[in-house]
Amino acid sequence: MQKLLVTLIAIVALVAGVVIYNGLPKEEPRALVYNPPRDLNPFMLQAHTGGQLANADLTGQWTFLFTGYTSCPDICPTTMADLGKAMPVLKSASDRPVRVWMISVDPQRDTLAKLEAYASYFGSEFVGVRAEHKDLYPFVNGLGLMYSIPEEGEVDYLVNHSSAIVLINPEGQRHAIFKADHQPGQLPVVDTQQMIDDFQIIASQYN
């Protein structure tokens, strides 16, 4: 009888513990998380590693998508360097591979050779991606990002583009977006530590 009572108490304590745990507020990322995640429209891009990239190339891994260009004077190299420094921690947060696609919004000047030299500088996880505007613009727009197209004949120009980072989940779906931190007198770049914290939460909750 005593053993039965002890067993019942243990079961009740276990159930109570589960109920209390499930009732606790879960830590939520500050990033915009899409619920449910959103499918990407079919696309075809070029990678600096050679060959074409399509939707299937985003599956089986976490991919951080960032728009930029090799001639960018500030936001792009800063963001790429921040992602490079964060990569060891990002990779440790999941048992899936982690990649970064730097999507060039300057196809007029960014050849595959330029993208290879640029992207590979930051690490083997970085892939330089390009396409002509007819394929590039709908892909970038579908991510919820934007960029400006220079006037025909322009040679020395800057490209205005989004500085947010889009997170693609291992199913190849748009899972979250890390928006840039706009502070007076500072570059509008994503807060790296906040992105790391958010990704750790997202990856731990991903099934």
TrEMBL record:
Cu cation binds at C72, C76, H161. Gene3D superfamilies: Glutaredoxin. Disulfide bonds join C72-C76. InterPro entries: SCO1/SenC, Thioredoxin-like_sf. Keywords: Copper, Disulfide bond, Metal-binding. CDD domains: SCO. GO terms for molecular function: metal ion binding. Pfam families: SCO1-SenC. The keyword Disulfide bond applies. Belongs to the SCO1/2 family. This is Photosynthetic protein synthase I. It comes from Pseudidiomarina atlantica.
